[in-house]
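We modelled the chain as a single entity of 388 amino acids. Its sequence is:
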Amino acid sequence: MPETDKPWLKSYQLGPFKLEQSLTPYPEAPLFHALDQAAAAFPTQTAILFEGRSVKYHELKRWSDRLASALAKVGVEKGDRVCLYLPNSPEYILCYWAVLKAGGVVVPTSILRSEDGLLHELRDSGSRMIIFREDFLERVEAVRQRTEVEHLLLSSIAGYDLEPVSRVLPRGAHDLRLLLKEGDDEPPTVAIDPHQDLCELAFTGGATGVPKGVMLTHFNRYCTLRQGLAWYLKPLLKGLAGKASVLVAIPLFHVFGGFAAQAAASQALRIILLPDPRDTQAMADALIEHRPFLVPGVPTQFMRLADVGLKRVNSMLFSGAAPLPLEVAENIRHKTGMAVSEGYGLTETSTIVTINLSSFSRITGFASKVVPGIGVPVPDTECRLVDP
């Protein structure tokens, strides 16, 4: 697509700062290199803060390396599908990176999935392992025999770093806490082709029909990390990387939540992770206590925040995953004094397609006016309106 067909390029600006029109060349590396580089640059920065539990970036890297080694020892091979059937927790983030380092493909799924829905995703993906919290053991065992799942990996309810699993482990099952002790400090050596090898098989129903697995490569996701906050906040990154925080109250299994956590990790930002995306008061309390720099969320979360009487905090609210009605954005701004930025994306695009730069310019104090809407396509993205 020639530049003349991309009128949005002239809008690539954050206040007085011009933003790059292209980000090529993109990283030709496995996605987990983003975590390793962040841990090398900011080892002592907090990576995850979750209900009083804290993980530093050097710890996240070390434990993901050890778990990757342990997964390889129990039989996870390159290309194997590994289903993450976990709630928002440090375990989810740790296991995601470890599966990639072992050469596996993450199949994220919701803990609210019905038994039939879980069975469908396990079967359709061909998952060989499922990772879950011990209180979901009965549901997993109910569907396991009708799938290709060979290995179970369980975490305790309290957390792998606090207590071992209390249940009697069935055949082919492992305790995450104990398995970590069996891994080596060096992850297995796996040849990853970023353009061809998948990092994730994300199920989505799209508009209609039975959920289908979307194949996302390491290159797909690494590109979107570059096209996200690393691009539109580049003028500010020197003061943010390794210092700022992101409040993640979106389910990590959802492509938006997973992307938010990975984008934060790529810049060594502190991830303030909430267990229940529906707990509005906990989200409001976290905003007041931690004053995060960025708060990605869905429209209903921001509507409820306004309704519980949240006052202004110096955080950037970023809405995605569903349309943000103009009246809702105005209501949030009126009640909280905070503008809400918005973006658009699809599971099939590895999350991101467009970003409203004007909202970020307003929030950062670089502009006085916000232009409503989903914004402009991110760099190196071809976009066309058909029958508008």
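As a brief sanity check on the tokenised model: Residues 169 and 175 are 8 Å apart (CA to CA). The chain has a mean pLDDT of 91.
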